[in-house]
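Posting this for the archive.
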Amino acid sequence: MFEKHDNSDQVRDDQRGFSLIELLIVVAIILIIAAIAIPNLLRAKIAANQASAVQTLRTMTSAEESFSSTYNDGFTLSLAQLGGAPGSKTCANAGLIDEVLSTPPNSKSGYSYVFTPNGSVALTFGVPVTCGVSGDTGYTISATPTVPGLTGIASYCVDDTGVIRVNAAGVAIAPPCSTSGFSPLQ
């Protein structure tokens, strides 16, 4: 009466997958797009790291000014003194910058920060008891890329003048920053 037809061959022909050539073309297109996008992504990451380094130097400069006016002891002698553990607010640990910047290796967002006091004592007498020792009359903070060319291209510095200077070559700027000969950041 009714014949049963086997349509399995027809179904298999209609449901076949991608051919090897089609898959290779898709992979090639993805690789071309990646080759175009990855360098742009790296440039964007470098630009973000450099902007972060400049902002961090501005924050540190503001923190130094706050320290100087709060403790009447000149500027700090180290990043550890400027920062410290959360909740600690003393002359030895002012808590004005975060602990990532105030503890070795003093790195953040692809940049390493080096603090150098100028070595000129701010107070010879009348040092606040909570401080124990006098701060200095000045400082220099430099920011250099942790992996030059990959995490950043330029290096920066700032000192007690508050002027951020830039070295486009990415080499560390020796203190004092204001007499380094590098141009101010525009």
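The domain at 18-179 is CATH 3.30.700 (Glycoprotein, Type 4 Pilin). The chain has a mean pLDDT of 89.
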